[in-house]
Amino acid sequence: MIDHVDSKVWVFVEQRHGHVAEVGLELVGKALELAGLLEWKVAAVLVGHQLGEITERVLSYGVDEVLVADDPLLAEYCNEPYVKAIEGAVRLWQPEALLLGATAMGTDLAPRLAARLRTGLSAHCIDLKITPDGQLLSAVPGWGGSVLAQISCPRTKPQCATVMPGVFAMPEPGDNRGRVIPIEVHLQPEDVTYRVVEVKREEAPKSGLQTAEIVVAGGWGVGTKADWGLVEDLAAALNAAVGATRPPVDEGWAHEKQMIGQSGITVRPKLYIGVGISGHMHHLVGIKKPELMVAINSDPNAAIFDHCDIGIVGDLKEVVPGLTRAIREHSEAVSKKTER
Amino acid sequence: MRIIVCLKPVPDPKHWNKLKLDPQTRTLVRTGIPGTINPLDRNALEEALRVREALGGEVIVLSMAPPDAQPVLKEALARGADRAVLLSDRVFAGSDTLATAYVLSEAIRTLGDFDLVLCGDETIDGGTAQVSAQLAEFLGVPNLMHVSSVDARPDAPWLVRSQIEHGCMVVEVKPPMVLSVVKAINEPRYVTLMNILQAEGKELAIWSAQDVNLSEPWVGLAGSPTQMADLLTPERKGRAEMLPGSPANQARALADRLHRLGFC
Ligand SMILES: Cc1cc2nc3c(=O)[nH]c(=O)nc-3n(C[C@H](O)[C@H](O)[C@H](O)COP(=O)(O)OP(=O)(O)OC[C@H]3O[C@@H](n4cnc5c(N)ncnc54)[C@H](O)[C@@H]3O)c2cc1C
Ligand SMILES: Nc1ncnc2c1ncn2[C@@H]1O[C@H](COP(=O)(O)O)[C@@H](O)[C@H]1O
Fold first, then answer.
1. d(CA B9, CA B38)
2. What b/e readout covers B72-97, taking b as 16+ CB neighbours within 10 angstroms?
3. A147 touching chain B per CB within 8 A
4. Does A121 touch chain B (CB under 8 A)?
5. With an 8 Å Cβ cutoff, is A271 touching chain B?
6. Contact A317, A221 (CB under 8 A)
7. What pLDDT digit, counting tens, does each position of A270-317 carry?
8. Which ligand is nearest to the CA of B97?
9. For a FRET experiment, which of A85, A339, B211, B218 has its CA 20 to 30 Å from that of B198?
10. What's the pLDDT score for residue A195?
11. ipTM of the complex
């Protein structure tokens, strides 16, 4: 194998059946920014089979190196052979940090790989920093969600982290200047420890949350499935997507895919309205820089009011129907004007 | 069939406002807060009982936790586990996921051969979702996460369904294995008074570090590669501008504001 790889920050860019997970590219963007501070180089790590096209695509995001493990036994994801492939490269070329997306694959691969390498992994991070002496600091919400913990991995390398999709913005393609370096793999059929017999796609309801300009989110305070309709009506009046905290998802008022936050999705709306939501960090970390953030909550001391621009203290059952009506009146007036 | 369920006692979420952080060790102080079974570990236990019902055998629950976690293990026995092992020793304190997985793996080796280890996908307090895969790594057996169904077949590879983005994959895998489950896998059964009484007769062993063979250094705070570097108080905008008046007035004022900003 080539005995010299310059990159100190590696990003596992996940692909399944030729489809690249966006979080891999988001992490490439962040890695270039962090590594730039230390004049380090960045490599993307690709694992699979017949990766030519994907390699080209990843190169176009400005990475210095693309390390490619390509083997028929890697065609379908199975953690053991993937761990083996990456482990070999890490032992040989010794990166300082390794980042992965917190996807189904990433959350399965990363802990096994980190344990094999006997190094530390911090999970589901919502922010990353690097110190001048090269320590990776990853932020994770902790303890009921009231604080953010900063996790470091001071004694072992590589410092590993999985990062939630959507936390970092998708980068623009940069100059295609990197080189491609093959990772030699020595896999036997026995390394594939389970056999994928079927992959089923289930169409999730399209919520449009990730790209929505307006998000109306409901929380535990909404109270019942019937009253969840109040949240949906408000959203409909604003042409907004409907989001949720965890409790409404657990209760079945909202779909799993509607959960905003650390274990859910990240939204970047212009306007966010939170209804009956207390303001745990687990939820708030999923809302990126809205121009206007509004909360309606019956508890004047709810933490969410410290993160908002406009607050209404009141019972949502009394406030929301009137709000929906008033918004409809405005929208109707606007559309009448444009008709004329 | 020997099935081991790794079950983490966690502070009951209803009492989380009482949790404190030890400024010195930067670990969680749980004293005085009642424990409960980590919610997904209840699903893991339920699945273990179902596999036992299908194929026969024994279900052992295993926890690494302080001695005051015994009531939580008793609950697991009442739910139907055959026996319980509580790994409890000061040297385990402050373990991160790698150290936790290492100690659990050595305890499982001490218990002997196994066919299946079941975990929850993640805990509500640590929430790292790492222990199951790391445990499998230390045990040197295959593992699957995000598992939503298990078809444990007596004479053929098992069929395991694992959730992935936009769907699931079904795989064939041969025991022994480690699986971590999602909530959708099953509905845990109710505990009856009869179950609680029966649990009184079941064995709850307490093991210290001496009872397992810990030859590697990955134990406790000192053996944990990750550390808590700092605690950040999240950025705050400061107090929101509060809209006064009756609900009708508040609603009107907000709608007018949204209208002026072009949102409606
Ligand atoms: C590891 C981990 C990951 C997590 N990930 C996520 C995540 O990704 N997303 C997420 O959302 N949560 C997540 N959670 C859960 C999170 O910690 C909180 O429990 C959750 O966000 C709280 O939701 P809530 O604000 O709707 O409920 P609560 O905290 O119960 O708040 C309800 C609010 O409604 C108000 N209210 C009640 N009645 C009314 C009324 N009639 N009118 C107006 N207001 C009313 C109350 O004053 C209260 O403030 C996670 C937790 C853990 C442990
Ligand atoms: N201290 C522990 N004792 C027993 N099982 C544990 C322990 N910590 C984690 N586990 C298991 O590992 C799963 C994932 O935990 P975590 O990686 O902490 O989110 C849990 O659902 C448990 O099944």
1. 6
2. bbbbbbbbbbbbbbbbbbebbebbbb
3. yes
4. yes
5. yes
6. no
7. 999 999 999 998 899 899 889 999 999 999 999 999 999 999 999 999
8. 2
9. B211
10. 96
11. 0.87
Percent of chain A with pLDDT over 90: 81
Residue B117 corresponds to which amino acid? V
Summary mean pLDDT of chain A: 93
| Tens of each residue's pLDDT in chain B, 264 residues | 999 999 999 988 777 666 666 666 656 666 677 889 999 999 999 999 999 999 999 999 999 999 999 999 999 999 999 999 999 999 999 899 999 999 999 999 999 999 999 999 999 887 789 999 999 999 999 999 999 999 999 989 999 999 998 899 999 999 999 999 999 999 999 888 889 999 999 999 999 999 999 998 999 998 999 988 887 766 667 789 999 999 999 999 999 999 999 999
- Give all strands of the β-sheet with A127-130 in edge-to-edge order: A127-130, A136-142, A147-152, B227-232
The whole-angstrom distance between B248's CA and the closest CA on chain A is 6
Distance B123 CA to ligand 2 centre (A): 6
CATH of B2-211 given 3.40.50.620, 3.40.50.720, 3.40.50.300, 3.30.1850.10: 3.40.50.620
- In short, whether A219's Cβ falls inside 6 Å of ligand 1 is yes
What's the A263 CA to ligand 2 centre distance in angstroms? 17
Give the start-to-end residue ranges of the domains of chain B: 2-211
Kindly give the distance from the C-alpha atom of residue A160 to the centroid of ligand 1, in angstroms, as a whole number: 30
Domains of chain A: 7-191 (3.40.50.620), 209-339 (3.40.50.1220)
> Which tokens in the block code for residue A102?
């917190």
Nearest CA to A191 out of A108, A77, A98, A44 is that of: A77
> What is the spatial distance between Cα A301 and Cα A311, in angstroms, rounded to a whole number?
11
CA distances from residue B73 to A10, B80, B230 in whole angstroms, order as listed: 42, 11, 33
Q: Kindly report the number of other CB atoms within 10 A of residue A84's CB atom.
A: 21
Contacts with A, B 145-164, CB within 8 Å: 145-146, 157, 159-160, 162-164
Report the alpha-carbon distance of residue B129 to residue B138 in Å, rounded.
16
**Tokens representing residue A4 in the block:** 């010299």
Sign of CA dihedral A88, A89, A93, A95: negative
Amino acid B111: pLDDT: 97
Q: Do B133 and A329 touch (CB under 8 A)?
A: no
CB contact under 8 A, B250 and A147: no
User: Are the C-beta atoms of residues B226 and A153 closer than 8 Å to each other?
Assistant: yes
Q: Which atom of ligand 1 is nearest to the CA of A218?
A: 26
Nearest residue to A66 (alpha-carbon basis) of A179, A183, A185: A179
pLDDT over threshold 90, residue A327:
yes
B129 touches chain A (CB under 8 A): yes
In this predicted structure, the answer to whether residue A159 has a pLDDT above a threshold of 80 is yes
pTM of the model: 0.86
Residue A41 has pLDDT above 70, yes or no: yes
Q: What is the pLDDT of residue B16?
A: 63
Cβ-Cβ contacts under 8 Å for A33 (sequence gap 6 or more): none
